[in-house]
Structures are given as structure tokens and as C-alpha cells.
Recover the amino acids of this structure.
């Protein structure tokens, strides 16, 4: 009788242990999320909500003032799969172009009375544009045949990503990455991020997160504090870091027509007022363009020219 009682007792203990382990494993993801600190994320993450943004503000385009931009647009169409969404008349041929995802744009124009951005004298680690690709070897071979030159040779990162940095025929530094864990959804090629070398990446990233609807994806430690931030719907990311061995671009001294970074807002007045309250300054007053868009040019506390635009007709997906 005593042995029967002990056997039943131990069976109940074993069953309880198995039940606890089952419930623990079932809820493991939830528990991990609860325990994970929110301040820093030390791993790449797969984030695939590839939808039209319902958020009040999101990155829209990078503007570049370049000589012979018409030829560059044609090259981008042929070699990067870009398509023209909007194009103005001569002589500036102000054009908005996008990759196949249409979740981030380039504005390429030729404004002769504004300085051209001199990419030939900009170190590729001071600023570069990055595309995620499915086949790095095939892509780099094709682009080298199309006139690109190697800025930094092929390498494999600590996380297993394959990377090469090229310069296109106009000397724009373009990085191509084949990731082991993609950060954004794509098929063959997609404009993934804009990388900028800054003095204080932690503070710059926090300002973007606090004021421009961005979120922290990844942040490393000293000395570079490499940081990735993205918009709420994971359409585009910025890479911010401090590399003491290459120059930090003095954006305060650069004409905002030479290069600027634009965010699309649903309420441009509210967005402008919020940014001004948080250290931004006005570079060019709010105005309405002939096609009905509202735009204002600001500079963030570090001098980066940031345009806020409220579109009459949306161009992004």
C-alpha cells in the first residue's frame, strides 16, 4: 500500500514537471520578449511588414544635385532596376526615381546655380548608399562591367554578411550586401540603407527615433557605436556610426540643394513645429510647389539638411 502511494506520488510530480516544461516552451517567445531590454538590440532582426505606411511621418527620398543627372538616371534604370516616377523639364530634369520596391526614392536634379555634391572627394565610409542583393557575386560582376569601380574589396562581416563597396561612373559610393539575415523584404535588389559617419551616433540616432518616427533596430558598443534605425514599417534604414579614421562630413557648411534627406509627413505644420521644438532650425521656409506639394527645409541639431514634404499625390508604396 505504501509503495503504491509512493509510486502515484512520484508520477504526479513527474507529470507536473512535464506540464511545466511544456507551458514554458509554449510561452518561450513571450517570455524572451518580456525579459529582453528595450534600450539596445544587439542582433539583426527580420522585420517584414511591407505595407503602405499609416504612420504620420516616414523617410521618402535622398536628394542629390549632380551634373548630367539625365545620364545617371538612364544608368540607374538599366543597371539598378530603377523606374522614373516623376520627371521635370530641362535644364534641371528634376526626377524622382525608385527601385522596384518603391518604398524609398532618389531625387536627382541638376541645379546649375547650386553646388554639386563632390562625391569623388568623399570617403566611402563617410557616406554611402547600400543595396541588399540576392546574389552579390553576380551583381558586382555585372556592375563592374557597367562602369563601376571597386572602392572597398569584397569581405565577409562578423555576422556572415557578404559586402562589397563600389563607385558608380559618377563616383557615388554604393555598398552591396548579401545578408544572412535580411533586415527588409526584397527579391533581387533593394535600396536598404543610407550610411553616415557622425561624431555621436547614439545621440543622432536617439533624435531621429524621438522626433522622426524611427525605431532602433541594432546598436553596437564603443568605439564606433554602429547603429541601425528604421521607420515604423521597416521600409528603409539609416546606419549611423563613428569611424575615427575617416572624415565626418560638415553638413552645416553644405548647401541643402546639394544633398538632403526627406521625410514624408501627413501634417507638415505639426511635423515642422515638433522638430523646431527639439533643436531643428529652418533652412528654407514652408512653401507650396506648382504641383500642390508642401515642403519645408530644416536642419537637425548636427546640421543635416532634412526636408519635410506633404504630398498632394503620394509616390511611395
Amino acid at each position: 500500500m505504501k509503495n503504491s502511494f509512493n509510486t502515484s506520488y512520484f508520477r504526479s510530480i513527474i507529470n507536473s514537471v512535464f506540464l511545466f516544461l511544456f507551458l514554458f516552451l509554449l510561452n518561450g517567445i513571450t517570455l524572451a520578449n518580456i525579459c529582453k531590454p528595450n534600450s539596445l538590440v544587439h542582433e539583426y532582426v527580420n522585420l517584414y511588414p511591407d505595407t503602405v505606411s499609416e504612420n504620420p511621418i516616414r523617410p521618402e527620398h535622398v536628394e542629390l544635385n549632380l551634373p548630367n543627372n539625365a545620364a545617371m538616371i538612364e544608368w540607374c534604370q538599366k543597371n539598378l532596376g530603377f523606374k522614373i516616377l516623376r520627371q521635370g523639364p530641362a535644364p534641371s530634369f528634376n526626377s524622382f526615381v525608385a527601385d522596384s520596391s518603391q518604398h524609398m526614392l532618389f531625387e536627382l536634379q541638376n541645379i546649375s546655380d547650386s553646388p554639386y555634391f563632390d562625391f569623388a572627394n568623399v570617403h566611402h565610409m563617410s557616406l554611402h548608399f547600400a543595396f541588399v542583393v540576392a546574389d552579390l557575386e553576380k551583381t558586382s560582376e555585372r556592375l563592374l562591367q557597367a562602369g563601376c569601380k571597386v572602392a572597398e574589396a569584397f569581405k565577409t562581416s562578423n555576422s556572415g554578411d557578404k559586402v562589397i563597396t563600389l563607385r558608380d561612373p559618377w563616383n557615388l559610393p554604393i555598398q552591396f550586401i548579401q545578408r544572412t539575415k535580411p533586415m527588409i523584404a526584397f527579391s533581387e535588389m533593394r535600396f536598404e540603407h543610407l550610411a553616415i559617419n557622425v561624431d555621436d551616433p547614439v545621440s543622432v540616432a536617439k533624435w531621429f527615433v524621438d522626433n522622426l518616427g524611427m525605431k532602433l533596430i541594432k546598436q553596437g558598443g564603443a568605439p564606433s557605436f554602429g547603429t541601425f534605425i528604421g521607420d515604423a514599417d521597416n521600409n528603409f534604414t539609416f546606419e549611423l556610426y563613428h569611424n575615427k579614421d575617416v572624415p565626418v562630413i560638415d553638413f552645416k557648411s553644405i548647401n541643402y540643394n546639394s544633398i538632403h534627406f526627406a521625410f514624408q509627413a501627413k501634417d507638415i505644420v505639426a511635423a515642422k513645429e515638433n522638430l523646431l521644438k527639439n533643436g531643428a532650425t529652418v533652412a528654407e521656409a514652408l512653401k507650396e510647389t506648382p504641383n500642390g506639394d508642401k515642403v519645408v527645409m530644416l536642419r537637425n541639431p548636427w546640421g543635416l539638411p532634412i526636408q519635410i514634404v506633404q504630398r498632394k499625390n503620394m509616390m511611395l508604396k
Summary: The chain has a mean pLDDT of 86.
